[in-house]
Amino acid sequence: MAMSMSKKQRLTKIAKLVVLVAFVFTFFLPIVSMFVTSLKSRGELYIIPPVVFPKEPKWDNYITAWTMISYERYVFNSLIISVFYTFPCVMGSCLTGYGFSRFRVKERNALFMLMLSTMMIPYMVTLVPLYLIVAKIGLTNKRILWLIWGVQGAPFLIFLFRQYFSTVPFSFEEAARIEGANRFQIFFRIMFPLVQTAVIIAAIFAFQWSWSDYLMPVLFLRAEKVNLAVKLANGYQDVKQNILQNLGMAGIVYYTAPIIIVFFALQKRFIAGLLSGGLKG
Prior knowledge:
Helix content: over 70%
Number of strands: 0
Radius of gyration: 24 Å
Strand content: under 5%
């Protein structure tokens, strides 16, 4: 009986492992396909039946992909835009989340639900009115727009910070208030250091959003100031404007590799932080 139970447990573990491996393979298949395509010659892209793996990997595709669009220039543009957005977005979201968590006013819950409901508004719906406003105040082709855009915070990050601040006991603030600390001192010296995990998570989200954003840069910036996401979409073409898919994939490998590395390096802290932030609401 014990032997049969042991065999059943072993078979169950093997079945779970097989399912997990299948899921991992499914999720990583696009990344593998991207990498394999980046090593193909242009002729191998259009062979019928298709060639899965290149006969001779073209590693020089990566050199061509880097030099063809002045890659470092657009990496710099993306970094500037992402940093300009990330810092004010994190601070704006943190302050707003703190307010929703700590200020006991009658309209707090209604305002909080109204703020969350904005997440249901499609991004495309707001682009035309936003462009008209930005053009009216003369901020087109200016990166300072991302500073102003970030100050308002992001609904999801506001919710995240509110959840974190809700887990901090009120006694911490009361003790500081007895010692004579004002509201800003309480926030920056006590509350803000206690939610550093949320700050890191919010910074990762905000940076990734602005790093991969296509619509706002292509609408509000000219060719020399656009970010890498825009340049990757239209930079790899021949003289007849045919898309060079192998070089494009090589450029995308450059583009996604840092994000993948950072995620796997911080995944334990990232997931643990998200889970702990949802324990109290």
